[in-house]
Automatic annotation (TrEMBL):
UniProt source species: Psychromicrobium silvestre
One protein family per Pfam: Hist_deacetyl
UniProt protein name: Acetoin utilization protein AcuC
Keyword rRNA-binding included in the entry's annotation: no
MF GO annotations: histone deacetylase activity
GO biological process per UniProt: acetoin catabolic process; epigenetic regulation of gene expression
UniProt-listed InterPro entries: AcuC, HDACs, His_deacetylse_dom, His_deacetylse_dom_sf, Ureohydrolase_dom_sf
Entry keyword set: Acetoin catabolism
Keyword DNA-binding in record: no
Length: 402
C-alpha cells in the first residue's frame, strides 16, 4: 500500500490574457469605461503574484481578423466600424459615434484586439495547452451582430463561444453576472439550442438596456436556451446570491454543458456609479467560486472567464478581477489578504482616493437558500420565481422545489 501523499493538489493550467495594448480601447477621458481599470487590475494581480503562479501562462492577445469577427457580426457592420476607425468624424451609424460609443481613431484594431484575447484563451483550452482561461479585458456583451451598444463594439465573448462551437464543442453555457443584461450575447445565440445564455442583472425597468425579462427564453427552435433573472434595484448581497443559487446551478446541471464561458462585469457593486445594485467584492468572489465549482462538476474544469462592466475604476474593479484570476487559476485569494502597499500608494497618488486595505469588503455573506421557501412578499423572490416558472418546466424541473 502506498503512503498518503501530502503534495498540494495540482493547479489547472491557466491562460491569462494581458498586454498593455489592450488599453487602446479608449473612448476618451470623460467616458466611464476608463482603460485604467485594466492596467490597474494587471498591476494588482502582478503584485499579488498571480501571473507567476505555477500553471499560469501570461498570453498576449492579437487583433482578430475580419473573418473571425464575421462569425458573430454582419459584414455591413464591420464596414461601418472600419470606416469610423479610419475617420472618427464620419456619419454615425449602427450605434457608432454616440455618447455611449464615441468613435475614435483605431477603434477597429482596439476592439478586435479584445476579441483576439478571448479567442486566444479559447484556443488554448481547445488545443489542450490550458484547462482554463481568463481575459479580464473582454466581456463586451452588449454588441450585437449588427450594432454597437453600451460601450461595446465587438462581442468577444460571443466570438469565443462561436469558436468553441466551430471546433466541435456540442454545448456551451454562457453565464453573465454583469449588472446589465447581456443582451448582445443573448441575441447572437437566441436561436441556437447549443448555447445556454444565463444573465443575472438589474431589471430593465430601472437600468439599460431595458431588456432581459423572465419571458425572454429563446427563439422558437431554442426555447429555454435564454435564461434571465431580472432583479429589482437595490438588491444586495443576500438577494443577489439567493437568486444566483436558486437558478444558475440547477439550469446548468440540467443543460449539461461541455464548457462554461462566464462574464464577470462587477458593476453590481454597491459603489458603482452607473447601476443600482448593492453587492460587495465578497459576493462577486463567491459567485466566481460557484462558477468554478460548476465547471469542475460539469465540464472537467473547462472554463473561460471574461471581464465586462465596472466603473469604480480604482477601488472595486482591480480587486474583483484579481480575485477572478486567482479563482480561475485554482487558488483563491483570502478576503482578508492585504492589498499591496505599493499598489495602494500608486493608486492614491494617481487618483487621489483612499484604496481599501483588504482584498474584500469585510462583510458577512449570508443568503437564504431556495429550500427555505418562497416568500411572495419579497421582490427578489418574485423575480426568481418568474424565471423559475418560465424555465424550469422546460428542463423537467419543479419551479417550487427543485
Amino acid at each position: 500500500m502506498s503512503s498518503p501523499s501530502n503534495a498540494a493538489p495540482q493547479l489547472p493550467a491557466t491562460c491569462v490574457v494581458w498586454d498593455p495594448a489592450l488599453t487602446a480601447y479608449n473612448f476618451g477621458p470623460s467616458h466611464p469605461m476608463s482603460p485604467a481599470r485594466l492596467s490597474l487590475t494587471a498591476e494588482l494581480a502582478g503584485q499579488l503574484g498571480l501571473f507567476d503562479r505555477a500553471g499560469v501562462t501570461l498570453t498576449e492577445p492579437y487583433v482578430a481578423s475580419d473573418a473571425e469577427l464575421l462569425t458573430v457580426h454582419e459584414a455591413e457592420y464591420l464596414e461601418a466600424v472600419h470606416s469610423v476607425s479610419a475617420n472618427p468624424h464620419a456619419v454615425a451609424e449602427r450605434g457608432l459615434g454616440t455618447e455611449d460609443d464615441p468613435a475614435f481613431a483605431g477603434m477597429h484594431e482596439a476592439s478586435a484586439r479584445l476579441v483576439g484575447g478571448s479567442l486566444r484563451a479559447a484556443e488554448a483550452i481547445l488545443d489542450g495547452s490550458a484547462q482554463r482561461g481568463v481575459n479580464f479585458s473582454g466581456g463586451m456583451h452588449h454588441a450585437s451582430r449588427g450594432k454597437a451598444s453600451g460601450f461595446c463594439i465587438y462581442n468577444d465573448a460571443a466570438a469565443a463561444v462561436q469558436r468553441l462551437l466551430d471546433a466541435g464543442v456540442q454545448k456551451v453555457a454562457y453565464v453573465d453576472i454583469d449588472a446589465h443584461h447581456g443582451d448582445g450575447t443573448e441575441s447572437i445565440f437566441y436561436h441556437d439550442p447549443r448555447v445556454l445564455t444565463v444573465s443575472l442583472h438589474e431589471s430593465g425597468l430601472s437600468l439599460f438596456p431595458g431588456t432581459g425579462f423572465a419571458n425572454e427564453t429563446g427563439g422558437p427552435e431554442a426555447i429555454g436556451s435564454a435564461v434571465n433573472i431580472a432583479l429589482p434595484a437595490y438588491t444586495g448581497d443576500g438577494g443577489w446570491l439567493r437568486a444566483f443559487h436558486a437558478v444558475v446551478p440547477q439550469i446548468l446541471r440540467a443543460f449539461r454543458p461541455e464548457m462554461i464561458v462566464s462574464q464577470h462585469g462587477c458593476d453590481s457593486h454597491r459603489d458603482d456609479p452607473l447601476t443600482h445594485l448593492g453587492t460587495s467584492v465578497d459576493a462577486q468572489r463567491e459567485a466566481a467560486l460557484s462558477i468554478s465549482a460548476l465547471a469542475n462538476e460539469l465540464c472537467e474544469g473547462r472554463w473561460l472567464a471574461v471581464g465586462g462592466g465596472g466603473y469604480n475604476v480604482a477601488n472595486v474593479v482591480p480587486r474583483v478581477w484579481s480575485h477572478l484570476i486567482a479563482i480561475v487559476a485554482g487558488k483563491p485569494i483570502p478576503l482578508r489578504t492585504e492589498v499591496p502597499l505599493a499598489w495602494r500608494e500608486r493608486v492614491s497618488a494617481t487618483f487621489g482616493s483612499e484604496v481599501p486595505a483588504l482584498m474584500g469588503d469585510d462583510v458577512e455573506l449570508w443568503w437564504r437558500s431556495w429550500e427555505v421557501g418562497y416568500n411572495p412578499a419579497d421582490a427578489v423572490d418574485r423575480a426568481v420565481m418568474a424565471t423559475r416558472k418560465e424555465i424550469f418546466p422546460l428542463y423537467g424541473l419543479d419551479p417550487w422545489f427543485d
